[in-house]
Design goal:
503 residues; alpha+beta; 15 helices; rod-shaped
Length: 503
């Protein structure tokens, strides 16, 4: 049995990687856009956290479909491609957030400011200001604005919303060549937003522009971070509010919140893709391993106070020999689970030629809510068909028809009982040949799962022939000392009376 942990082959389809990147980029941005849309009117932070997790799971699910479809078995490469795509998708998400923020805190308030000054300006006589006076005033004002705007555009966090060249040209167009032209330009703007965009150099950001220009995106985020948009008490986007709602969250704390949000949106998705690419793949069948559904409950208790409660020791023993799990007691499928136990799940090839088990340690942490902590102590360990057949047999379950392994459950149970009895009586167990590890060699128990070696056959002796039997009988009969030859009595024979010439 090749008791090794599964290692991916790191094979991939280049076309699959391209599709994975595009799907994660476009699909991720679409899901993130919907996520930001919901966040724009949902006040509760707990719901927002739930939506972030849900969005990440959705993106991860899309990624696993691509990995499965294109047979990508290179976890690190799949992880890198997904991370790269999601970083760009998050830039699109933040860009869409900035556009909504601009519309809410810049555009809408400026549009509410009515710039229709017809009634006020109609009383002003355009000819009341001479051309010389007007031109001198415009020249002075332009020089002053030009000098101040140079400094402001270099230091202000609002520089992302204004274009200096557009501002300079717009001011020239606004003032025109006469005071009357200036009044007409003012009257042409119905609100402050139109005035700002047409003459004051304001640039309306777009999602594409911010997403493709990281410097602009970062500048806008710095502006939002300096001002703040929401507070902890209300969980709503607010600007410049104090009092009962408290000061808005901003600065270092807001950066931490954004980083945490980014982690929630990306880490689960990366875990989904990485886990699928690392899932056992049957190279001989060119398909992913099959997971039994429904999976039988193969549970083994971890008794308190016994060595079984230390899953690090159990992990070490199972890695040395997976059959060690059968030395543990078993929990019947109809028995209630204890507070702490192990259970086994597995995936397999189509005909059980390759099988991979995962051993999980389950610990009850909250009895009232029935909450358990699951720890995978061994993941995707390779075992043969005999192990799977014995596992079913140990729990008195029918072995799957396609599994041709040997069910050694009875032998394993007998060996376990013998071992338990020997331990209770204090008899030492027969040692095993030490491992070839130098000074660290120790005597281990003989493997209970290894098949016993057959005893050499002793040839049966052949049956003796009739002649051999007669010879043996004559050899056992008593031999006469005289007067007998070939069974004829010659004791009364007189050799002198025999005429040898007539013979």
């Amino acid at each position: 049995m090749n008791n090794t942990l599964y290692k991916p082959s790191n094979k991939f389809n280049p076309v699959g990687l391209i599709v994975l990147f595009l799907v994660m980029l476009l699909g991720g941005f679409a899901i993130y856009w919907v996520y930001e849309l919901f966040n724009s009117f949902i006040p509760l932070i707990y719901i927002r956290i739930f939506l972030a997790v849900l969005a990440s799971f959705g993106i991860g699910g899309i990624g696993t479909i691509v990995v499965k479809k294109f047979h990508i078995r290179a976890p690190i490469i799949a992880l890198a491609v997904t991370a790269f795509a999601l970083i760009f998708a998050n830039m699109g998400r933040l860009a869409s957030y900035c556009v909504r923020d601009f519309n809410k805190y810049m555009r809408d308030p400026l549009e509410e400011k009515n710039m229709d000054m017809t009634s006020q300006l109609s009383s002003i006589d355009p000819n009341s200001v001479t051309a010389e006076e007007y031109n001198a005033y415009v020249a002075f004002l332009s020089a002053a604005l030009d000098e101040s705007m140079k400094k402001d555009f270099e230091t202000s966090e609002y520089d992302v919303l204004f274009d200096r060249d557009k501002f300079v040209n717009g001011m020239k167009e606004l003032f025109g060549t006469s005071f009357g032209e200036f009044l007409n330009n003012i009257k042409s703007c119905s609100n402050a937003y139109q005035l700002s965009v047409k003459y004051l150099g304001m640039v309306e950001p777009t999602t594409f522009d911010l997403a493709t220009h990281p410097n602009k995106l970062v500048s806008y985020l710095k502006m939002v971070n300096k001002e703040g948009r929401w507070n902890i008490k209300s969980h709503r986007y607010r600007y410049g509010e104090t009092g009962d709602n408290g000061e808005p969250v901003k600065g270092f704390i807001l950066w931490i919140v954004w980083i945490a949000e980014f982690a929630i949106l990306i880490i689960p998705a990366l875990g989904f893709v990485y886990g699928k690419a690392k899932y056992p793949y049957i190279e001989s069948e060119e398909d992913w391993a099959i997971e039994e559904k429904p999976m039988p409950e193969f549970r083994f208790p971890a008794e308190t106070g016994s060595p079984y409660s230390d899953f690090n020791m159990v992990k070490k023993e199972i890695l040395r020999n997976p059959g060690y799990i059968f030395t543990l007691p078993r929990i019947s499928v109809i028995a209630p689970p204890p507070d702490t136990y192990y259970f086994i799940k597995y995936c397999r090839s189509k005909y059980y030629d390759e099988n991979f088990i995962t051993v999980v340690h389950s610990n009850l942490v909250n009895a009232r809510k029935n909450q358990r902590k699951m720890t995978e102590i061994i993941k995707n360990m390779r075992v043969d068909a005999d192990f799977i057949a014995t596992l079913y047999g140990a729990f008195e379950l029918p072995v799957p028809p396609m599994c041709k392994g040997e069910n050694r459950a009875q032998q394993v149970n007998a060996e376990a009982q013998a071992r338990k009895k020997a331990q209770e009586e204090g008899r030492p167990l027969s040692p095993q040949r030490p491992k070839m590890t130098g000074a660290e060699a120790i005597f281990d128990e003989p493997s209970i799962f290894a098949k016993p070696k057959p005893k050499p056959e002793v040839p049966k002796p052949e049956a003796p022939s009739f002649a051999q039997q007669e010879l043996a009988r004559e050899q056992r009969a008593p031999q006469p000392t005289s007067g007998q030859m070939d069974g004829i009595d010659t004791s009364n024979l007189n050799l002198d009376d025999i005429d040898l010439t007539k013979m």
